[in-house]
Amino acid sequence: MTSGRNQHRLPPFFSFPYSQYASEAWLSMGLKTYILKRVAMLIPVMLGVTVITFLLSHVIPSNPSWVWAGSMHATEETIQNVIERYHLNEPLYVQYLYYLSDLLRGDLGTSPVTNRPVLDDLRQYFPNTIELSVSSLIFSILVGIPLGVVSATRKDKLPDHVSRLFSLCGVSMPIFWLGLLLQMVFYYELRWIPDPGGRISEEILVKFPVAHITGLKLLDSVLTGNWPALLNLSVHIIMPMICLSYSCIALISRMTRSAMLEVMRADYIRTARSTGFSERVIIYKHALRNALIPATTVIGFTVGWLLAGSVVTESVFYWPGIGQYAVNAAFRFDFPSIMGFTVFVALFYALASLVVDITYAYLDPRIRYE
Amino acid sequence: MESLLKISGLRTYFYTYQGVVKAVDGVSFEVNKNETVGLVGETGCGKSVTALSIMRLIQWPPGKIVGGEIIFKGEDLALKTDREMREIRGNRISMIFQEPMTSLNPVFRVGDQIADVIVLHQKVKRKEALKKAVQMIEAVNIPDPEKVARQYPHELSGGMRQRIVMAIAIACNPDLLIADEPTTFLDVTVQAQILKLMESLRNKVKASMILITHNLGVVAQTCNKVMVMYAGNVVESGHVGKIFENPMHPYTKGLMNAIPKLNEHKDRLEVIKGLVPNLVNPPSGCTFHPRCQHAMEICSKQKPALTEIEENHLAGCYLYH
Amino acid sequence: MINMKEGKNRINRWKESHLPQTREFRFILHLLRRSPLSILGLAIVICVLLMAILAPFLANHDPHEIDLQNKFQPPNREYYFGTDSVGQDIYSRILYGSRLALQTGITVLATAGSIGLIIGVIAGYFRGKIEEVIMRITDIFFAIPSLILAMAVSAALGERSLTVTLVALSVVWWPFYTRTVRGVTMSLRENQYIEASKCIGANDWRIIFDHILPNTLGVIIVQASMDMGNVILTAAALSFIGFGAGPGEAEWGRMIADGRFYIQTYPWMTIFPGLAIFFAVLGFALLGDGLRDILDPRLRW
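Above: the input entities. Below: the structure tokens describing the complete assembly.
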């Protein structure tokens, strides 16, 4: 084993797993090489994704140049420009190389509708999607895991049945329908929220504009002490967040429940009981810690689900994120934007999965030593 | 000899879809201070369930202790609340289970797992508990205890894991140690080491031990007293020498005969005819009577009580009434 | 739950005297009885199937009949669920929509399942380089979230139609089945009867057809019943965004999109199609859960 305990001072969070030796976990050889290995595996997968998007954007369409030039809005001139710009007359592998080099330089194409580079559009709308997705993720985890634990420990009793019913409804309901219903009830009927959607009310935008520090409006308004804006922003984010989270809570609680049931039958839980720990300690320390491991894989899947769900949720709530952007692009037959959006989301999802994998390795020491 | 644990008429039933499984149906025995008692029998005869009943670890549903007394140091464990039992488990009575590979929590380091138990029962600070944990690891003959304490269970071999389980069991100096087939999943050489270790630990801590096994050789090596169980009942019990020299109950005799001996010349191994009974519908009267060569009419009507045949030797059979 | 009466003893004796298959069947019935939710799921699925099959008999209007005089009617005796913006009867459209939903689901799962079966068995049985390549390819597909990949494929194919949706969803779903089948194949392969078959000279393909394929079918069916709901949801989402069914087609997702802007004034246009989707998906989810619980031997005590 490596460094002495006093060599590195880490924030208290890292000693959370009840061990005085936990600070060493972060630095141990096993975790570091695991991270490196995972990053190395990411690269061929991303290359593969670019191959797929290349096939979808350059090979499958029956008339790529026409589609890239904007379909309906294409003129002879724009089509010629497009052919030159994207080298559509060259053999396929050459096209792919140009495609790849463009991607690496950050050029995701230009939207024939807005005439702006796709990446710029995405960069503008992305922070809003991040805010919505991250809030939903945190909310889902904070609600989903305890719900799953309660469901598992009171199996077949009323809380279990209620929460299972709730989960089932969550995975069965189309999000866009749920969103519309929420809109209908809370805005049109009850008037509890000021707008049917959107990020921030007109008047607040004018009177208390939010400074642009990170691009994440909630964070920015906190940093600048802009409380009216913060309140308004929070009110606007609640509905889409609940809508987006519902299915995630369902997924996470189902997985936590089945993982807990599985773990509670394990031999080491029997050992823990035989050494005199109370049921509560066994559930929340011995069992949950183990159940979190498969739950983390579900959380990884949830991230992808949130990205996909943002597409419809943002559309329903007029949320200015990349999902809304993609839906508008689809509506206007803006092909480069859709493809650029796809590549962007895939890359982001891959990075998020990497973070989830690392968390998984941190939680499960057996993985690190493969 | 002072009595440490006295069980009378213990009955533990399991209520399942297929009926009531009478896993333990009237078991009585006594464990004195500083002695090793062996609990022998085939798979399914109720040895583990007896041990779990002593610790009150039988889960309801589907299992429940329906009758009997478990007197430990003057108190009836069958009547205690769960909170009171928690103070006893791991503290005054410890248990070692049979599968070392899966008995330890995979996400916590081994030293932490021992220290947790010490902190729970002895109310010391964590630092001190960790130091004591390292001492425990040393006591179970694991080299380089400081390093091992920082390792995870999957980094240790089966034998080492079993030793850690033992370290957890003796960490709080228990009065009674229950070992449920501690060596079944280990190979023979490791088995010998573990048995020797258990004996020395027991002596050091001055605990009594109940050793559950189906291996008669192990019993002969380590136990002072033996209890032979069959289908939820104790059929013979007494001093180990007496039982091995002079088995009384037909079942015990069958077991002894089935062991191949070096000094005997045989062409075929002896078997006990028949199969272990279904505990949902056990045979009436003496549970062994369908397989017994000496079965009499009364055997199928009434269960024989354990009667003393000679000093320190009891058998439950109508042959000796 | 605990039944100690005479009846139980009688059943026990009856069971002892019957064939193992009958006992197994009885046991499965018992498990089903203990799980009323699975029965509910089965009932709902059967309901949806009947809706689809009997649509022409149950509908009281032509789903595509435009009747501008009766547009935006609230639910009444003539139009059970009301009418939409061009006077089409929502009730009849929902009935015919169930056909589209089931067709989409079954076609997608059959296609994805078949592709996944073949590729998965090859990957799981032959291992080695081929398996590596196939797994990397499925990883690449998994790197793009389902709905987004479906959108991209639909956009690439150009047209906006349900056929395009079918293709797009098949492209999205085949990796899931490949992975599942590969897992099952890998564990089956380790069984000793496979080794025994090899010892008596069976070649690989024979082993695959006789031993491995039949056992994978069970897994595929359970997974398909659980996935059916997701396929229906994703197809509806695609139609909602505008990729799948065209305007006027009686597809549930499309109907919600059509009703979206009238939600304040004529909410029945969105409520009923959504309920239909919810109902169908719920049924499949319950059924899938139940099937999985039954086929998982560890959950039986």
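Note for the figure: Chain A touches chain C through 52 residues (CB under 8 Å).
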